[in-house]
Design goal:
about 60% helix; 3-stranded antiparallel beta sheet; 7 helices; mainly alpha; elongated; about 180 residues; Arc Repressor Mutant, subunit A; DNA-binding; homodimer
Chain lengths: ~180, ~180
Amino acid sequence: MAKDRKIDLVILGLLSHEDLTGYDIKKRIDGAINFFWKGSFGSIYPSLTAMEGSGLVQRLKDDSCGGREKIRYHITKKGIEALRNWLKDEQVCNDLKYETLLKLYFGGAEDRNITLRNIDIFEEKVKADLEVLYVYKSSLEKELDNEDHLYYYLTVTFGIDTYEAYLKWCAKARKLLKR
Amino acid sequence: MAKDRKIDLVILGLLSHEDLTGYDIKKRIDGAINFFWKGSFGSIYPSLTAMEGSGLVQRLKDDSCGGREKIRYHITKKGIEALRNWLKDEQVCNDLKYETLLKLYFGGAEDRNITLRNIDIFEEKVKADLEVLYVYKSSLEKELDNEDHLYYYLTVTFGIDTYEAYLKWCAKARKLLKR
DNA sequence: ATCAGCATGTAAGGCGTTACATGATTCA
DNA sequence: TGAATCATGTAACGCCTTACATGCTGAT
């Protein structure tokens, strides 16, 4: 597997639960995962092709009744192995790029109102995201006995906790800037 | 300026305070900025060359007394303009890639202890980063009257608030996973 | 009929990292 | 003398996004 193509692991992770098409994978990534990882068709399809070549996934027979061809992929034993090795690998890369903080840091080059406006924009986005996260949370906490739901739940509460911290920070920052 | 090369703005932001060499810029980025943005020599030097070409920055005369050549850059009026336009632009891209959350999300493919270990690793890193942030904070809060320091201070408290939220989440997550 | 959604894929191009090449100075 | 730091730059390579190409199905 390519050294740094994390999209491979996202796909393997998804396929470890169920067989999926590239299109399905994209939809899954655009859901809850989107809060901490992104992926486009332009990376998903080539990844699937490459991983088929290295035996991490395999194509299933086309089971679509008419309509356009539909390729569902299944994870192989080798694929499961690769996924587990990654989970056990203690090296992680959390790569955070906050353009909002960059603008804040250099806010001195403009009027304070610009910074205040940028904080408002950030806050709006955070509030909207939080709404979505709350919905995920309430639907997940009903079935925490399900092992997988517990993991999903934890990623959602991670989002909620940090986003709520963002909101508190916004209020404090606004106060300081208006003083 | 290139459409999506944010490193240009980081450099312009830094140069809006003082004239710097590429090497200096790298050091600044590796400081407090590193918590929300990264940059390597391989992106900094080409960016400087490109921005000189488009008149956003200009080379100063070599003022090094002997030793290796040393190129200090100065931001031009056009550069200031570009920086301000970016600050006023309401579109922002906060691109967060948490490999830790990815591993958590797919934790079901391995033993729970692996997930617990991954949370430990995350927590260790967060605690270490927090120590650094606390130092920045205490040195900055002494001079909040300085306009720029106020902005730096706000980015640091952003980091502290979110990192503290991370730590609280770690404790909760551990409890749930050990139940 | 037309538009949204389903479905797969490629091509171009941008951004960025890593590693390498080069060489001076300073300090132990 | 050797290592660390200062200092600039290039080259290779990888990853990813955007846009494009193609075409079916189902609902309005």
